[in-house]
Write a structure and sequence with these properties.
The protein is α/β, with parallel strands linked by helices. InterPro entries: AB_hydrolase, AB_hydrolase_1, AB_hydrolase_fold, Epox_hydrolase-like.
Length: 398
């Protein structure tokens, strides 16, 4: 099986970070062949095969290269192999803490920076000096860290259903989300976990659509149960570690400026009905990356890459093409030149006089305080709902 030993490469060698890089093995698969290289980083609790619709759409095959016949026995042009000089080779992998990759036992061994180092080591392992990088959810956070660490190795960046981490990871507070959260905590079997994942990843109308005589929910539930059963339920170490990575993630202004200075094109792709990663935060990140960023919002949920596969794949191909043709940032972006939001106004005021800067800081702290209140309210509402359901279950039937 193809594994990358992180400690063997530049960032992983002589590990003094406490990140458990030495001894960490990252499981990966490559698909398709061609000069265009694409690294795919999946999100929280996901495995490499979650990129299946994009791999199929961009390379023409879902069969890993290590399962194919040798190049000498392969007919050029089949399954995206050989023939096409403009072909795409994609690599998808399991992040540490899930799937077949190593599962460190300490939460300190999980952060988006550490996981970005895993990704750099994998690029070194593959011999890729540069690549287009696609990231989904937590994987998009990791992709941002990767792009700020080694911007010279990034050809373009696609951020799917991304947030800025920390408080921004909290889902939308409503009855539906609270119900999903309670069911998630109770899900101890692949069947229960699959049912929760469907309501988390897709819009209700998509799940209720009929494909033949069955609904998408029925079809996808069987696929999810099969996938979870084959890879196994995520361990508590991996779950808590990856949760820690999301919670501690933050993109500083110097990191954003390093990305902007590199000049590569960026596409922020988001499902506008995502209940986990709210689109408001994705837009705010896109605005920070102006003018190199394009915002693509689609009718879908958190796993918009599956729900709106054709549109997402087209957006990704547009990004690759624009990057290869060296399209200017001004021609690429679809964001307004100046935002009228109060957050942008505050950002502008930071460059003004000292008094105005202090005022900006006060409003910044007020925003953080508002998020803390939302967090406390969410915990209280979650606890009350859990207590109500518990009492209801204890109440004898008439």
């Amino acid at each position: 099986m193809p594994f990358c030993e992180v400690g063997k490469y530049r960032y992983g060698s002589g590990d003094n970070s406490g990140g458990g890089l030495n001894g960490t093995r990252i499981f990966y698969r490559t698909y398709g062949h061609g000069p265009v290289k694409v690294l795919c980083i999946i999100g929280f609790a996901g495995t490499h095969d979650s990129w299946g619709p994009q791999i199929k759409g961009l390379t023409g095959s879902e069969t890993p290269n290590d399962d194919l016949l040798s190049a000498a026995d392969k007919i050029p042009g089949e399954d995206g192999f050989g023939g096409d000089e403009g072909g795409i080779e994609m690599c998808a992998f399991d992040n540490r803490g899930v799937g077949k990759s190593s599962v460190p036992t300490k939460r300190s061994e999980y952060s988006t920076t550490i996981m970005a180092i895993d990704a750099v080591a994998l690029m070194d392992h593959l011999g890729w000096s540069k690549a287009h990088v696609f990231g989904h959810s937590m994987g998009a956070m990791i992709a941002c860290k990767l792009a700020s660490m080694v911007p010279e190795r990034i050809l373009s960046l696609a951020l799917l259903n991304v947030t800025g981490g920390g408080f921004e990871c909290f889902p939308r507070l409503d009855r539906q989300t609270l119900s999903v959260g309670i069911r998630f905590l109770r899900a101890k079997t692949p069947e229960l976990r699959a049912a929760v994942d469907l309501d988390t990843h897709y819009t209700k109308e998509y799940l209720e659509e009929y494909v033949g005589t069955s609904t998408r929910r029925e079809i996808l539930h069987k696929e999810y149960v099969k996938g979870i059963t084959s890879s196994g339920m995520q361990s508590s170490y991996g779950f808590e570690g990856q949760m820690n990575a999301c919670w501690t993630h933050k993109m500083t202004q110097p990191e954003i400026e390093r990305m902007r200075a590199a000049g590569f094109l960026i596409s922020v792709i988001h499902g506008r009905y995502d209940i986990i990663a709210q689109i408001y935060y994705a837009r705010r990140l896109a605005e920070r990356l102006y003018p190199f960023c394009r915002m693509v919002d689609l009718h879908g949920g958190h796993l918009v890459s599956h729900e709106r596969t054709q549109e997402v794949n087209q957006a990704l191909l547009d990004l690759i093409k624009a990057s290869e043709e060296k399209l200017s940032a001004q021609d690429w972006t679809n964001l307004p030149k100046k935002s009228t939001g109060w957050l942008s106004t505050l950002s502008f005021s930071r460059s003004n006089a000292e008094g105005e800067t202090k005022l900006t800081y006060i409003f910044y702290m007020m925003e953080k305080f508002h998020l803390v209140l939302l967090y406390i309210f969410g915990l209280l509402t979650f606890s009350l709902e859990y207590l109500r359901l518990t009492m209801k279950s204890l109440k004898p039937d008439r």
